[in-house]
């Protein structure tokens, strides 16, 4: 799976967790370009990036608004990113006679390059620390007045920054260190992005799900785009493309936009994930995987129905299992406990700090205690509220929430969000009754297994029937598969819900009191105190570093804004074996069994004799990346592009929570493979020349 | 699930682990009757069992050779044990016109009591410490000479003990503390055991798998047997049956035969189970559960085919998950690490001890390191070698092993064990091709997921095909489903295997080198050093306690021989809620939805109005029990029977490894429920009177 997708997946998880930032260790860190760890780089690598180097990297890097990173690789607006970052574009351009996933996308001239609908690319222009403006504007304000002041200053600063030209400039106020620092990020905004080249899906995602997050890998997860303005390619700074790729042991950088991390979680929250949350999620998802796997085997039609869901479940399982295995094999919890204690001691040592930050770790402990009691119940209930049962609960909950003033509603039901719900309810996504029944029956079986048959919630859900009988009856008799019915019930509000006779709506209505009570406890006793403590901890860490004059030794949690990470090209040791850093074309051909997902495209089979099989294909490095870094360029000391980030290894999945140099590895496609593919496999010498030359 | 069954299940697990014994904490311990913790009982409960009390309990207790415990409850040979301990008897006696599981078994006179085929009951008569005889006989001997000496002394002592009357006496030499102490256990042996009464399976195992290992429970897991000699009921000491049952907070004892524990595992081995082994097993079994669950939903025929396997998988999952949750929520690993360090320090403090015990924990660390590297591979491979693929590997391995001298063969292939293999290969167990294919395909999919597509073992297993294609072809084309073919291949030896063209045999033959190499490493680098270290640690602990004169503060690992445990009737706290110690008939009726497995037998529905619904049904106590304790009587201070052990709660599943008074609970049927059932539900006043009166 791509980093972008896995990030989305993880961010959608129902866990309620914390965030913060801690001191960085060797090669750890996603650094803002205005606070690079120059001392550490000098000490560990004898390298000191100067202002020109930094500015060049910043201006050659880019962010795709959909959730990826990218880089300019020629003076004529050519952009390199991942294949999976262009998925929506290739999908939109494909039609009955063109399947650009299967066949790839190729152009011979600018005229053939086609605009990607809705794609936006942003290029960082500058960073301004606006902490003092924000502090001044919010000084002495609390609660609603504080929020209003923040909104006012944000609106004022971002408007001034875009200078009335929102078409070309985008300005984001970014809260770093959970509000310890605030920066204004100004981007040059490009909305005419065209696809130039994409290989076949079968080489871009060669190995499919079995290889996903694993290494060795053999993928060319590449797409080439071109940015236009006024109908012509733009001219910007760009990264010189090095067709030789990196060597083992090289210092390399990644310039990208990591999406979200929680690097400062207190030890108690990490232990909760390791001991309670992840195991429970892995168990329940594993059973679901087995169910879907067998469902898909029953017929070609069932395989088609279950494909997406099965892929999603397997992907989530890899994420959670990878994180869990890493957490278990690491001493991060014990380390963090010491850091937590040290921070609390620093707070306690000063009355002003005590007043400012209080006892956030005690707050965390208490909230986690409640979460331990509620987690399994919450998980099991939410697993049952998927599909049509989920729609039914949205209708029931939505009716109640919309009756409240906007400010008092639960997250997801604010006026600004209703359109999204309505679009989803009105969408004609197919409903497969057999799959729907199997899913609901399994979820209800798990609910009963987890909570016990006598639990009031289980009794409410099942009455005196078996999970299978309840699911079969609900799916058979409900009419919620019809978008018109869903929409009518939505617009009918509380009155329509109250008098609905649809059995799935009745099911949701009956469960609602228990669902609502549980959510209230999760919000009031878990999420809210954790969120408050999260901010206090992160701000205390920032203040401590600032007071000690060592801001370049800490980095803020990821915020999907431009960051630089550094590391070296090197393998790691796993299960008693050394995993080497590079793969090559020879390995790729050995890896190809001919059966999906290990079937190479015909062009690759045909090209075998013409390729230098020792050419490096993919490599791993110690760079600290997470989802959102997909498409990031890998740079050498000269700032030349030597690779293209597209994944992490399995242990890197814990990168959300912490970085472990022993096992966490970023996975890139080597630029030497890209050049060989363009020249030898795809016969696109012009594009290859543009990369090597730096212009068309 | 019953304790007896769960024990069998766990003992069949492929984990290679250690055993030992550590100092007991409050209520912990499975004590031999000749070393009861009298000081602790006096201190904690103000109770001192005298010699008469002990002898009475010993002589009223019994062991069923199949793997259960029992007790005499009248002067006329009446025996109380669990329903699930009489499963094989009820099954053997049932026929086309009698279903004693569905309907129960009832008698009105001695003449109607029917002999249970093959059932043997043993009653402990005496214990003799023979450590010095064993030490003398083995003095100065090593290796084969040592083993021969042990065999010689065992044969001599047990023969003398049975005094030439093996029909009536059974003598077992029991190695306690892994050889730190050896005792001779003499049992009176009874081979005419008849069934007197058994309730319906639907009340004996009410709640089925969903309730299994959970609590609150509502089961009457009872069967009444009677022991005969010379065609008449025997007269033995017996426990007075107390029809009132216990009260909350009462001190209670269990007298039974715990099967096997590993209470002395070093911290490294516990951590390995917690962090590596259990999670991997739970993951792979969970996926299998989901597959089987869906397979069973496909048709009534599939449900029938998958039923046993699904139940077995769910039961194993509960065992492992319960153990895992307990390990995660406990500080046992940290505690044990301190105990390990202290024991090593004690060893190190004396040259003689250093020579005797060495550095066993360092040996463990090294072996566990290798096991970490091999575990996932070993697990995934063994999951694939089930069913017909497993038979094929048995044939391939068996041919090779039988060509060796007996002493050099691997475990399972010694001459004395070949009959068992031959019986299994010749058995006409049905093979369901669809289920067989699904199982193998899933196992091969997991193998590829876990090891990666490029792993040589995976390449050997799959070639260039998908897991599904390989499994479908093998199951379709093999003839191993035919017992005659399997038997012929077995008897054909290596020559038959070498020239076999059956694709499943070829599959096993091809995998054999990798399988064999892996097994050799597991044996030589993991099991053998762990086993050696296990003995050293256990013997060192025993010697340390002996030297300190505190043998009554430690207890040996369970050995399926008579033990006494003690504790109090009390609930526990779970997920923020207090679980009360008792259930009652009112709860049972509330629990009954009418759908299986929550459907009560008709007799119970009819009797509702006549029953006192506040009668206690089941209860939990802190007694330290494990599998093998099924059927143990629960006794009060007077030595009266107040309950009947039949299960443990979920946290008790970690009882194999350690005892945690905070959550580990034994689950019993209350004697007050037994009396009410006999009098009011089953109208068996004579049997009830015999219990209360103590004779017919």
TrEMBL record, chains A, B:
<dbReference type="GO" id="GO:0008239">
    <property type="term" value="F:dipeptidyl-peptidase activity"/>
</dbReference>
<dbReference type="GO" id="GO:0043171">
    <property type="term" value="P:peptide catabolic process"/>
</dbReference>
<dbReference type="InterPro" id="IPR009003">
    <property type="entry name" value="Peptidase_S1_PA"/>
</dbReference>
<keyword id="KW-0378">Hydrolase</keyword>
<comment type="similarity">
    <text>Belongs to the peptidase S46 family.</text>
</comment>
<keyword id="KW-0732">Signal</keyword>
<dbReference type="GO" id="GO:0070009">
    <property type="term" value="F:serine-type aminopeptidase activity"/>
</dbReference>
<protein>
    <recommendedName>
        <fullName>Dipeptidyl-peptidase</fullName>
        <ecNumber>3.4.14.-</ecNumber>
    </recommendedName>
</protein>
<feature type="signal peptide">
    <location>
        <begin position="1"/>
        <end position="26"/>
    </location>
</feature>
<dbReference type="InterPro" id="IPR019500">
    <property type="entry name" value="Pep_S46"/>
</dbReference>
<comment type="function">
    <text>Catalyzes the removal of dipeptides from the N-terminus of oligopeptides.</text>
</comment>
<dbReference type="Pfam" id="PF10459">
    <property type="entry name" value="Peptidase_S46"/>
</dbReference>
<keyword id="KW-0720">Serine protease</keyword>
<dbReference type="GO" id="GO:0006508">
    <property type="term" value="P:proteolysis"/>
</dbReference>
<keyword id="KW-0031">Aminopeptidase</keyword>
<keyword id="KW-0645">Protease</keyword>
């Amino acid at each position: 799976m791509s980093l972008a997708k896995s990030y989305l997946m993880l961010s959608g998880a129902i866990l309620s967790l914390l965030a913060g930032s801690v001191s960085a260790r060797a090669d750890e860190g996603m650094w803002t370009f205005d606070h690079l760890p120059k001392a550490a780089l000098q000490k560990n690598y004898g390298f000191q990036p100067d202002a020109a180097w930094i500015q060049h990297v910043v201006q050659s890097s880019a962010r795709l608004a959909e959730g990826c990173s990218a880089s300019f690789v020629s003076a004529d607006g050519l952009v390199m990113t991942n294949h999976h970052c262009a998925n929506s574009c290739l999908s939109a351009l494909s039609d009955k006679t063109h399947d650009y996933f299967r066949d790839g996308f190729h152009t011979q001239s600018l005229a053939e390059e086609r605009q990607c609908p809705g794609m936006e690319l942003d290029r960082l222009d500058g960073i301004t620390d606006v902490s003092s403006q924000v502090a001044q504007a919010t000084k002495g304000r609390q609660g609603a007045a504080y929020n209003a002041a923040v909104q006012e200053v944000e609106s004022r600063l971002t408007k001034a920054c875009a200078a009335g030209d929102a078409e070309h400039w985008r300005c984001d106020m970014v809260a770093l260190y959970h509000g310890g620092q605030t920066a204004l990020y100004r981007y040059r905004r490009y909305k005419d992005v065209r696809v130039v080249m994409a290989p076949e899906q079968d080489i871009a995602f060669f190995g499919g799900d079995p290889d996903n997050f694993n290494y060795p890998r053999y993928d060319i997860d590449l797409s080439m785009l071109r940015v236009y303005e006024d109908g012509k390619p733009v001219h910007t700074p760009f990264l010189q493309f090095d067709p030789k790729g990196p060597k083992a042991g090289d210092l390399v950088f990644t310039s990208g936009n990591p999406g979200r991390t929680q690097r400062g979680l207190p030890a108690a929250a990490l232990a909760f994930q390791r001991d309670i949350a992840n195991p429970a999620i892995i168990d329940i998802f594993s059973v679901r995987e087995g169910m879907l796997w067998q469902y898909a085997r029953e017929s070609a039609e069932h395989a088609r129905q279950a494909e997406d869901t099965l892929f999603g479940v397997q992907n989530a399982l890899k994420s959670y299992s990878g994180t869990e295995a890493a957490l278990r094999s690491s001493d991060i919890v014990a380390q963090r406990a010491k850091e937590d204690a040290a921070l609390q001691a620093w707070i306690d040592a000063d009355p002003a700090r005590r007043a400012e930050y209080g006892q956030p770790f005690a707050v965390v402990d208490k909230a986690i205690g409640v979460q331990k009691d509620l987690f399994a119940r919450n998980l099991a209930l939410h697993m049952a509220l998927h599909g049509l049962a989920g729609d039914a609960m949205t209708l029931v909950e939505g009716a109640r929430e919309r009756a409240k003033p906007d400010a008092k509603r639960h997250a997801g039901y604010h006026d600004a969000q209703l359109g999204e719900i309505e679009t989803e309810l009105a969408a004609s996504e197919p409903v497969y009754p057999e799959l729907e029944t199997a899913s609901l029956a399994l979820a209800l079986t798990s609910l009963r297994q987890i909570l016990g048959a006598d639990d009031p919630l289980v009794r409410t859900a099942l009455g005196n029937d078996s999970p299978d009988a309840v699911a079969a009856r609900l799916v058979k008799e409900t009419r919620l598969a019809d978008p018109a019915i869903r929409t009518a019930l939505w617009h009918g509000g509380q009155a329509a819900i109250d008098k609905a006779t649809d059995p799935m709506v009745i099911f949701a209505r009956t469960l609602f009191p228990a669902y609502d009570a549980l959510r209230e406890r999760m919000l009031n006793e878990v999420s809210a105190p954790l969120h408050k403590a999260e901010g206090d901890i992160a701000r205390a860490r920032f203040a401590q570093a600032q007071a000690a004059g060592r801001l370049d030794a800490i980095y803020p949690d990821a915020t999907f804004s431009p960051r630089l990470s550094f590391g070296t090209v090197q393998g790691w040791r796993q299960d008693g074996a050394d995993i080497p850093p590079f793969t090559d074309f020879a390995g790729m051909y050995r890896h190809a069994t001919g059966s999906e997902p290990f079937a190479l495209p015909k062009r690759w089979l045909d090209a075998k004799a013409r390729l230098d099989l020792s050419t490096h294909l993919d490599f791993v490095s110690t760079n600290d990346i997470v989802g959102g870094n997909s498409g990031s360029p890998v740079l050498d000391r000269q700032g030349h592009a030597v690779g293209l980030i597209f994944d992490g290894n399995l242990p890197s999945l814990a990168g959300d929570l912490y970085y472990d140099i022993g096992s966490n590895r970023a996975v890139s496609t080597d630029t030497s493979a890209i050049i060989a593919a363009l020249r030898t496999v795809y016969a696109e010498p012009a594009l290859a020349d543009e990369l090597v030359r730096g212009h068309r």
